[in-house]
TrEMBL record:
GO molecular function: ATP binding; protein kinase activity
Stretches assigned to the Protein kinase domain: 1-213
PANTHER family membership: C2 CALCIUM/LIPID-BINDING PLANT PHOSPHORIBOSYLTRANSFERASE FAMILY PROTEIN, VESICLE-ASSOCIATED PROTEIN 1-1
Protein name: Protein kinase domain-containing protein
InterPro entries, per the entry: Ig-like_fold, Kinase-like_dom_sf, PapD-like_sf, Prot_kinase_dom, Ser/Thr_kinase_AS
Matches recorded under Pfam families: Pkinase
Amino acid sequence: MDQENVGSICIRRLEKDYSVFEYISKGSLHNHLTDELRGLEWHTRYQTIKGICDGLQYLHKEKDVVHMDLKPHNILMDDLMIPKITDFGVSKHLDGISQAVTGGCHVSLGYCAPEYLHRGQVSFKSDIFSLGVIIIDLVTGRKEDPDTKIVLRRWRYRWNRSATYPPLGYQQVTECIEIAARCVSHDPKKRPYISDIIRQLDELESTNGHVNYANEPTFSLISPYPWELLDIDPLELHFPFEANKQIPCLLQLSNPRDDYIAFYMQTSSGQYVPRRTKQRNCTAPIQEQCHHNISSTEDGTASHAE
């Protein structure tokens, strides 16, 4: 394959097929998937999404090939974090037909289109379903249906902390979530073609490569989360597992504003106990910090500060 985002080359010599694989130094995309608060910056994630789309368009439009096993493990990242689609062991050439039926399905649960999983039906829309799941992976680090406002707030928290605001970042996040939602429709007819997805992404930028700021949404209309009023460190708590032992974890709250902020400590389950004073209702002093101990009373799962 002679396209930047397709990483393997198939050569036919003496009636035998040889696969030549480029050495990819950064490993698979799976190794780089995290939630919004850590890991790859948004620009890298967005360019990865666009690169995967470009590679998929090459396979669909130029080679008439359905990958059939598109997932993060089969997308490798090079030194420049350019994604390359690999592993065509179960791929199918459609020979100009719109869909085919195959037996002996090889599936990757979570990424496999339902019509292929249950009926063995293969089409370009099968890859589109897998692409939608991968986009959700990249935008949120999770596979459940994303709540756009929550995802945007988490990205805004990260951008505020780093003081870096990617051009059109909010709009790109929103657009990617919307595209992914259409891609993972159980009805293949409702999924977009790869050319439609690329066109939608390209519309966010001008034709000469310069970002068009005119469409940047007014994000201030979305009310802030508590962690945007108070700086919370860390935002996610992890407790080591020790049975029948109360394990404390320190949570630091900082008020950078010139006003008092009242807050209430609420935990997601009874096994987490916030402690600072006898009351949970507290006030963050102006331009000061306060500390709380969040204790785990049973197991070692993670707790989100609220």
